[in-house]
Design a protein that fits this description.
alpha+beta; transmembrane helix; seven-stranded antiparallel beta sheet; two-stranded antiparallel ribbon; Jelly Rolls; 4 helices
């Protein structure tokens, strides 16, 4: 601030001196005082001193230094951040590796069984041969025991096979009905021919020699009392309505009736339209005139080939005969075939069941 005032004073000093000289001339006295001279000398010195200046080069240099320092500081911060990140990654990797090694060590200690049979010392050659010989003997003993066990298993398997085969044949013979059959010729059942429909006679095969039994291919009604059921081995009667009366081996309290017919899949004609459809069952008393209605049923060829029907015999009555009356078939226009009929129930003594009565037909 002082040097600025001095500069302004130095700049106005010639005008002031000129005015002073002119004033002295006008006054007629050229004398100048000492204070004025000192003031003039001071003004001259201040006029000669140059004003202080700030160099532009110095400011540029200072800015460059500051920029360099800031860049260095930024680089240092970046390096420090990277080092911190790398150290964190290193610590994470070391931690994971430590956990893996610890798990592996735990697995080796607790999961892998210890080697209990590991020899504690080296064996000599003779001891090694002795051990091999003893182990060979043990293997031979084991082989002998395995052969013996194999023979026992084979014998048991053969016995079981025979037993299973017997059970299978028994089940096949029972046809899964598993009820006693009193309409079986082998136990004394027979056909009452006087009360049974006539056999079907085909006009196309009614030649003279067919009248002899060894030339006649038609099966008699007794075939329905035999267990041999195969396509064609049946009793056929004319039309779609008929009846058969079975003489039982004794007085039987009838409970069920079973009809059997081969399925359509094994029929030679490609269907089962000759099979009975609707039928009724009656129990005949001793006089052969009194008939007791035991039920009306339908044989469905689309179901099983063996179908059992429960009779309405309540209270239980014993009958010496049973009548199967066929009311319709499955569409055959000329005849109806019966393959097998079974009568189930409980056999009674000759005098039992006389007091039981039923609805006469």
């Amino acid at each position: 601030m002082g040097w600025k005032l001095s500069a302004e004073a130095g700049a106005s000093e010639p005008q002031w001196a000129d005015r002073l000289w002119r004033g002295n001339q006008l006054a007629g006295s050229p004398v100048v005082s000492e204070d004025q001279l000192d003031l003039l000398s001071t003004l001259d010195l201040r006029q000669e001193m140059p004003p202080p200046r700030v160099s532009k080069n110095f400011l540029n240099l200072l800015l460059q230094v500051l920029s360099v320092l800031l860049s260095l500081v930024g680089d240092v911060l970046v390096i420090v951040y990277r080092e911190v990140c790398s150290i964190r990654f290193l610590l994470t990797a070391v931690s994971l590796l430590s956990l893996f090694l610890a798990a592996l060590w735990w697995g080796l200690l607790y999961l892998v069984p210890p080697l209990e049979n590991e020899p504690q010392e080296m064996l000599t050659l003779s001891e090694y041969h002795e051990r091999v010989r003893s182990q060979g003997q043990q293997l031979q003993q084991l082989q002998a025991e395995l052969d013996k066990l194999h023979k026992e298993v084979s014998s048991v398997r053969a016995a079981n096979s025979e037993r299973v085969a017997k059970i299978v044949f028994q089940r096949l013979n029972e046809d899964f009905v598993r009820k006693p059959d009193y309409a079986l010729s082998s136990v004394g059942a027979s056909i009452d021919l006087e009360k049974t429909s006539h056999d079907y006679e085909d006009a196309n095969t009614a030649y003279f020699w067919n009248r002899f039994s060894f030339w006649n291919y038609a099966r008699p009604p007794t075939v329905i009392l035999e267990p041999d059921v195969f396509p064609g081995n049946c009793w056929a009667f004319e039309g779609d309505q008929g009846q058969v009366v079975i003489r039982l081996p004794g007085r039987v309290q009838l409970s069920d009736i079973t009809l059997q017919h081969p399925p359509p899949s094994v029929a030679h004609t490609g269907g089962a339209n000759s099979a009975p459809r609707d039928f009724a069952v009656y129990g005949l008393q001793i006089d052969d005139k009194t008939e007791v209605f035991l039920g009306k049923f339908t044989f469905d060829v689309e179901k099983s080939e063996i179908q059992t029907f429960h009779l309405q015999n309540d209270p239980p009555t014993a009958f010496p005969k049973v009548k199967i009356q066929i009311l319709s078939n499955w569409g055959h226009p000329r005849f109806t075939c019966l393959y097998r009929v079974r009568a189930h129930g409980m056999r009674t003594s000759e005098g039992a069941g006389d007091s039981a009565t039923g609805e006469p037909h």
